């Protein structure tokens, strides 16, 4: 171990590097690999959480939470650890289904994680044999990941090539479960057979450590098109660091693994937008910015706080704040791209992140969702549960509340948020986006917007459905909800927006005042050349307490077809020329109609219900119900130069 003076000097150096003008590597640039090796607590001395036999310490853990896990484990004491047939893996190639396989593998890990926690809670040995069975069953799986993440080539065709191991999200997650089983229960395993811990290390080394240290993975850095890494990077790194710290007993190799993971993390953090915006949306934030926080919290735990300086960076602060800046109401969040409209909140992690960056709003936000989080059982991000177990008293006493900011502008991500009243879900909520069409989990949606009222959806972004083989393939934009003609956007001369980073918004102008907020942009570059657009200036505006107005001024190279689309969860209908009625209902189920006003001399209106018939549509129905409607406002005689406008207001 290094002396205190040396550690202090290195920490000061780290901070200077972190905040220096030329600093690019915020995490790996602070220390050399040799300095990191000195900082890391040796495996023989490292005790991130109390050992199983330290019952006095475990008495300080939250008994209610432990009882949740104990109850679940008791219900599954006779769980038959299932074999996963090859034909389940082949489904991804044969039918496109990924869920049958994933349902089995995810549940195996959830049961194992709960049993580990149950044995910690009880310490009577009742769960040791089931845990060993679970470990053995998982170690005998051909692939710890999921078939959807296999290379889409004839060489694989839905089955893992066990001679070429690589690390996806769930390979890394699996290693974490085994590492914590070894940490807490290793001595119990040795009383039965030394082969258990030996098997854990052998499989982890072969499936995780060797591939990560010796071969490049696509999630480690920007892709060939320059798109920065997404949530895979910090999510996998958090499990990599976790597992290396717990299982690698060669101190030189342990430091090397952690240091490489830190370098990979910087490939995620360095290009991340300064405004902290997560283009994958709030439901992926929990594995993106939140996983970055997981990494830093693990590094701090293993180095006596040597990475605390990372939280001082404004970018890292903004990354945390995003989760409440993107909130619509208690249940709803912005769901641009593949995000879910009603994601689960990892309350304890959010609270800890807020505390780390000294953000009282984020802490209140996390504390608000305490009960929802406490009742959940571990599935992903398993190690968060151990932090959570020792913070419940503070958590319960913490101030609770939703910040619900009145106005947010993420200038790098190009997302605006506005509501009628700060701190309240009453009245209008409005959000709009610019950006480009090569965002992570991209939808072709430049210029799209959503309108909510009293915290409930009026005009929506459908978001994603069920992931299948099509979702992340060259067929992605054959799926309707990924296309611009199923967003609140125009179709021009029969053309929809195109995917790619070159298709982007330009000439953005954000304007916020006391009684209104607006965003304007040129979206012409979002469309292919065949659309014949010279310019398309879109202005999106909320007049607080009154209306939302959408105005498009355009110049086309030739006359052609022009249709505006609006997506809603209500059976809209034309009630008179120029008036579309949306039968919005409030939280009490009472009808509070809204009107979409348009120029009947310019546009004809058709309303269609979207049939949810494809495998991908199942997830849409689960989120919104079978009630997705598209309002099509078709221009009768569009000219080369013109304007289209409509407004949304209470009837």
Question: Can you walk me through this structure?
Answer:
With 651 residues, the protein is α+β, with helices and mostly antiparallel strands. 37% of the residues lie in helices and 17% in strands. The chain has 20 helices and 19 strands. It has helices spanning 4-19, 33-39, 55-58, 63-75, 86-94, 99-122, 128-139, 169-192, 195-214, 232-247, 251-269, 282-285, 289-303, 314-325, 347-356, 360-368, 370-374, 384-389, 392-397, 618-624; strands at 407-410, 415-419, 428-433, 436-437, 449-453, 456-459, 490-492, 500-504, 506-512, 516-522, 533-543, 547-556, 562-568, 573-576, 579-582, 594-597, 603-609, 629-635, 641-650. The N and C termini lie far apart (71 Å).
Report strand order across the widest sheet: 9-10-11-12-19-16-15-14
> What is the typical, i.e. mean, pLDDT?
94
User: Number of helix segments?
Assistant: 20
Instruction: Tell me the distance between the termini.
Output: 71 Å
Structural class estimated from helices and strands: alpha+beta
Radius of gyration over C-alpha positions, nearest whole angstrom: 26 Å
Number of strand elements: 19
Please indicate the percent range of residues in DSSP E strands (runs of 2 or more). 15-25%
Shape: globular
Segments where pLDDT lies below 50 for 5+ residues?
A: 1-6, 16-23
Describe the sheet with the most strands. Answer: 8 strands, antiparallel
Helix content: 25-40%
């Amino acid at each position: 171990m290094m002396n205190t003076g040396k550690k202090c000097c290195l920490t000061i150096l780290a901070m200077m590097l972190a905040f220096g003008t030329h600093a690019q590597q915020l995490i790996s640039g602070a220390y050399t690999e040799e300095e990191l090796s000195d900082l890391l607590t040796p495996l023989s001395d490292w005790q991130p959480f109390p050992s199983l036999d330290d019952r006095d310490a475990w008495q300080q853990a939250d008994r209610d939470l432990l009882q949740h896990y104990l109850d679940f484990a008791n219900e599954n004491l006779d769980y038959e650890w299932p074999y996963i047939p090859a034909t389940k893996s082949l489904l991804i190639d044969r039918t496109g289904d990924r869920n049958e396989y994933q349902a089995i593998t995810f549940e195996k890990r959830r049961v194992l994680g709960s049993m580990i926690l149950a044995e910690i809670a009880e310490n009577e040995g009742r769960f040791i044999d089931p845990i060993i069975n679970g470990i053995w069953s998982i170690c005998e799986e051909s692939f710890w990941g999921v078939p959807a993440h296999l290379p889409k080539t004839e060489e694989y065709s839905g089955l893992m090539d066990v001679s070429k191991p690589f690390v996806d999200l769930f390979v890394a997650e699996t290693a974490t479960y085994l590492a914590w089983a070894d940490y807490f229960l290793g001595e119990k395993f040795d009383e039965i057979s030394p082969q258990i811990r030996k098997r854990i290390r052998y499989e982890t080394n072969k499936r995780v450590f060797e591939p990560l240290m010796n071969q490049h993975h696509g999630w480690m850095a920007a892709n060939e098109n320059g798109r920065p890494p997404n949530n895979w990077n910090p999510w996998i790194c958090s499990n990599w660091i976790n597992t290396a710290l717990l299982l690698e007993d060669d101190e030189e190799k342990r430091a090397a693994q952690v240091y490489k993971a830190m370098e990979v993390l910087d490939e995620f953090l360095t290009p991340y937008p300064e405004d902290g915006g997560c283009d994958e949306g709030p439901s992926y934030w929990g594995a993106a910015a939140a996983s970055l926080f997981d990494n830093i919290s693990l590094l701090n735990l293993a180095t006596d706080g040597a990475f605390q300086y990372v939280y001082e960076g404004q970018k890292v602060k903004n990354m945390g704040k995003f989760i409440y800046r993107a909130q619509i109401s208690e249940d709803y969040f912005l769901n641009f791209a593949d995000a879910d409209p009603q994601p689960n909140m990892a309350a304890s992690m959010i609270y800890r992140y807020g505390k780390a960056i000294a953000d009282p709003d984020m802490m209140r936000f996390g504390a608000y969702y305490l009960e929802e989080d406490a009742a959940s059982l571990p599935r992903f991000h398993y190690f968060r549960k151990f932090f959570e177990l020792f913070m419940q008293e503070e958590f319960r006493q913490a101030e609770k509340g939703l910040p619900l900011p009145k106005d947010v502008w993420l200038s790098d991500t190009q997302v605006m948020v506005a509501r009628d009243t700060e701190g309240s879900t009453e009245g209008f909520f409005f959000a709009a986006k610019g950006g480009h069409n090569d965002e992570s989990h991209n939808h072709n949606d430049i210029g799209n917007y959503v309108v909510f009222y009293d915290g409930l959806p009026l005009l929506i972004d459908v978001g994603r459905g069920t992931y299948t083989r099509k979702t992340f393939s060259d067929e992605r934009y054959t799926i309707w909800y990924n296309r611009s003609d199923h967003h609140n956007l125009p179709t021009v001369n029969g053309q929809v927006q195109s995917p790619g980073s070159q298709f982007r918004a330009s000439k953005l102008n954000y304007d916020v005042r006391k009684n209104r907020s607006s965003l304007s942009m040129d979206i012409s570059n979002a469309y292919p050349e065949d659309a014949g657009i010279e310019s398309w200036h879109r202005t999106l505006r909320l007049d607080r307490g009154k209306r939302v107005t959408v105005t498009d001024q355009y110049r086309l190279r030739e006359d052609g077809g022009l249709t505006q689309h609006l997506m809603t969860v209500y059976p809209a209908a034309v009630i008179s020329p120029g008036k579309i009625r949306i039968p919005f209902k409030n939280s009490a189920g009472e009808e509070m109609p809204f009107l979409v006003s348009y120029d009947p001399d310019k546009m004809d209106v058709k309303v269609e219900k979207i049939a949810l018939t494809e495998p991908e549509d199942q997830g849409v129905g689960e989120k919104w119900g079978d009630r997705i409607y598209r309002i099509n406002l078709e221009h009768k005689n569009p000219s080369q130069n013109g304007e289209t406008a409509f407004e949304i207001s209470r009837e």
